[in-house]
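Comment thread on ticket #2218

A.B. wrote:
> Attaching the input chain for the structure job we discussed in standup.
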Amino acid sequence: MHNFPHQIYASGWYQVGWSAEFPPGGVAPMRYFDQELVCYRGHDGTVRVSDAFCPHLGAHLGHGGKVEGDCITCPMHGWTWGPDGQNVAIPYSRPDRMELSIRHWPVAEVDGLVLLWFGAHGEEPTWGPPRFLPEDASLSEDFWDLHPACTGEWRGVRFPPQVVTENSCDAAHFRYVHGAAEVPDIVGCDSGDHWFETRFTLRFGGGVPSTWATPKGPVDGTLTTTAYGLGLAAGRLGGFDTVYTLASTTPVSFETSDHRATVWVPRRRGDGSPLDETIRDRWAGEQRVQHARDVPIWENMTYVDKPAFARSEAQTFRALRRWIERHYSEAAGDDPATDAVSAAVAVGS
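C.D. wrote:
> Ran it. Output below, let me know if you need it in another format.
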């Protein structure tokens, strides 16, 4: 992104993949936050992420490393690293005399996603991983399987997470980028230390008598977007069907990120009838198409420090910008403003 002012990563939870991508015994190299990492799922079913390089002679554990029980073994000399990062075996020596370890990163599996905690100062998580589905929902029983049918991925894109965070409260772009029949109305927003929620009302169906998403005609619906930190932007579409979405953006470096789209499609429609694979694929495909429209715009934007907001959007955007800047302030070690964002903003008040 042109002229982006921040050369710092904000603390928070970031997506590094979907649970289905990491089978038991699987090993995957990855690079995020300018660091080489390795991700593996032990035979206990737990996904773990550690620094990638073996402290012995620097072999990358993600290229040829093997899972043994809940440990990972170096491909070069067989040194074995336990689930807590401790060196537990050197085939030709005694590991207890070395007292070596590699860093393990906090990881959580939530609603079919694998989330990684990044602490700007190496701190442990200061807030828990968010849920994207209702607490009483069953991922396997109430929704179609996520990966790969209901996901999309864009690797190495040229924009930081903030671009997607700001997009979550941008009502007008739904009309001009995504083809909505009209600009949604912003009815309010709220925020906390690590989340920012915007609420919209809109009409699904665009006046057409029937569509695959509105089979009984146009529906007055809602869209609620919630940013969790700067890496996760969740959505809830409430119309004929209730669908949950996530746009996640994880920095690879200060210049590039990996961007992912997830859509949780329910197994039953709004009237209780089964939602079949054809409609599932329409919902998933629609999300991929809409993200694909966003990506080239995001990659070629310039950062505007003081945007010329329209009156209808100014209050929400300014509240969001203040909330965002707190994350960079905290990442830089500054004391965050105690009242940077009001607890609730009633649009138009």
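A.B. wrote:
> Thanks. Noting for the ticket: Helices lie at 139-142, 161-167, 173-176, 277-299, 311-331.
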